[in-house]
Amino acid sequence: MHSSRRVALVTGANRGIGYAIAGQLAERDIHVVATARDVEQANRTATDLVGRGWAASGVRLDVTESDTIAAAVQHTLDRHGRIDILVNNAGISDGDQQPSHIDVDLAARVWQVNVLGAWQCAEAVVPAMRTAGYGRIVNLSSTLGSLHHMTRSTEPAYRVSKAALNAVTRVLAAELAGTGILVNSASPGWVRTDLGGPNAPRTVEQGADTPVWLATLPDDGPTGGFFYDREPLEW
Ligand SMILES: NC(=O)c1ccc[n+]([C@@H]2O[C@H](COP(=O)([O-])OP(=O)(O)OC[C@H]3O[C@@H](n4cnc5c(N)ncnc54)[C@H](OP(=O)(O)O)[C@@H]3O)[C@@H](O)[C@H]2O)c1
């Protein structure tokens, strides 16, 4: 089967910014494959979106489990015949530690989710996007991952992982130049979520805006860039 709607796969779509991204994509008449580690939570997001009159389905995907990435992509292709958009939203932080004294196991978990998880999801969708000659890959980075702005020491493993994720954006964009697949990083700003905390100034809807803009870029849109509020951000 080949869906007439564009299809977007969103990781960590069960809560926070990922949930808002899923909603903003769905309201643009894109079928959202809402993925989450817990399939019931993925299904709950999909049910919410369908209840609002939009197209969505829920699929289990843990970015640290390669087989779930492969299965989610295969399920989407079997059902829709296409994956137009990947939003690598899933992310975790190491919170309060200092870079001169890190918990290596925690840093490795952050790396596994934020860098290798996102990278493997991209790897899994590229073949179908290449065949279609169309793709949008959005990596949820952070201003905390900007080397230019990296003047503080908080959340060191998170910062390092987001700088590395930006490098993944650059190398993938370089490889895929001219294929119709655009790869970009987004900083959502400081957003009120479990990760961002209650004092963050932004809503999840505001945080979702730039990622959704990058996920729906026209064919002559940028690739290999880093954006905040739809404007280039220093690496
Ligand atoms: N909030 C901010 O201020 C802010 C600022 C800059 C960048 N960001 C980035 O924006 C993205 C979303 O952040 P958020 O604030 O919405 O965070 P959040 O509310 O803590 O949500 C994190 C999401 O990631 C999912 N996740 C964690 N580990 C996963 C795994 N192994 N496989 C699949 N999903 C996994 C979580 O699923 P579970 O429910 O199963 O844990 C949850 O859906 C992250 O990449 C974050 O780094 C956020």
What's a concise summary of this model?
This protein is of the alpha/beta class and 235 residues long. The chain is built from six helices and eight strands.
Description:
It comes from Saccharomonospora marina XMU15. Keywords: NADP, Oxidoreductase. One of its GO terms (molecular function) is oxidoreductase activity, acting on the CH-OH group of donors, NAD or NADP as acceptor. InterPro entries: CBR1-like, NAD(P)-bd_dom_sf, SDR_fam. This is Short-chain alcohol dehydrogenase. The model has no long low-confidence stretch (mean pLDDT 98). The chain has helices at residues 16-26, 39-51, 66-80, 104-132, 156-176, 204-215; strands at residues 7-10, 31-36, 56-60, 85-88, 135-140, 181-187, 225-228, 231-232. Strand 5 (135-140), helix 5 (156-176) and strand 6 form a beta-alpha-beta unit. It is an alpha/beta fold and 235 residues long. It contains six helices and eight strands; from the N terminus they run βαβαβαβαβαβαββ. It has a single domain (7-232), classed as 3-Layer(aba) Sandwich (Rossmann fold). Helix 1 (16-26) crosses helix 6. An eight-stranded mixed sheet has the order 3-2-1-4-5-6-7-8, sandwiched between helices. The longest helix is centred in the middle third of the chain and has 29 residues, at 104-132. It binds NADP nicotinamide-adenine-dinucleotide phosphate (NAP).
